[in-house]
Amino acid sequence: MRVHAVINSRAGQALGVSGESLADKTRAAFEAAGHAITTDLVEPATMGAALDRAVAAKPDVLLAGGGDGTVTSAARRVLGTDIALAILPLGTVNRLARDLGIPLTPDAALDALASGEFRKIDVAEVNGEAFLCNSLLGLPPKISAERQALRGHPLGERLRGYFALLKTVIASRGHLDIAIDGAETERMRVRVFSLAVSNNLYDERPSLVFSRKALSDGKLGVYIAKPHSGLGLIWVLARAALGLWRGDDRLEQLSASEVTIMTRRRKTLRLSNDGEVVRMRTPLRYRVRPAALTVLAPVSKDAR
């Protein structure tokens, strides 16, 4: 197996591991398992160009070392090719790595991947842009954008900015029209604080990071938070983190293979796709692409 690893040189700092050490560990793990490997250690600003060069070399596996943004960027580049994606989780959340059962410490992750197996998983997309985990509307992307704008500012100024944002959002819940599986003549109109579209359904079990056991069921999950107050929103999120969203009339859950989200006034909406904040023109058309991505993952317990 020919592996081309592209590792964010800054990503391991939070784990107390230097970029050079990560590159050495990566080479050693895959060579010990009998694989040929090329390793590129790159600065965040040149990650995109490095991923392009790696894909052009046509390896069997592209290993992306970084956070969720790096992983999604790598996945978009290998879609439609014969190249599989491997993940060395070096971010804060590491959503897909968790769902694939990849250990979150570099040494354990590399050992598991070097002796891993290939799996096919679904990919979701909105208006043609692929994402692996979720697409968020409403409060979450606004908080992400505000956090980026306030980065580097004093703590007091950041707190005032977040408080002002929360007041604005609470006072201006948006109306959305939602059509399921192409039935635009039977659209539902909802007033929401936030809405999430997930690539496959979330598990109903306690977790601060929502997880998915199934990654190839060919379904989108749609989660609509529609409380009547800011405190209600906090309560909904707390219950969801405890896996208690079923039966809560303030959080509606739907399942579909296609979802269309429309607005009657706004021409664009701000989204957070796998943590990347973007603006997209409406309507937002979501669909799932079954088994579109090959990933290298730890050997499943059933196969051991």
UniProtKB/TrEMBL annotation:
Key word Oxidoreductase present in the record? Answer: no
Query: What are the DAGKc domain coordinates in residue numbering?
Result: 1-130
Which UniProt keywords are given for this protein, alphabetically ordered?
Answer: Kinase, Transferase
From the Swiss-Prot or TrEMBL record, what is one GO molecular function term? kinase activity
Tell me which InterPro entries the record gives.
ATP-NAD_kinase_N, Diacylglycerol_kinase_cat_dom, NAD/diacylglycerol_kinase_sf, YegS/DAGK_C
According to UniProt, the name of this protein is Diacylglycerol kinase catalytic region
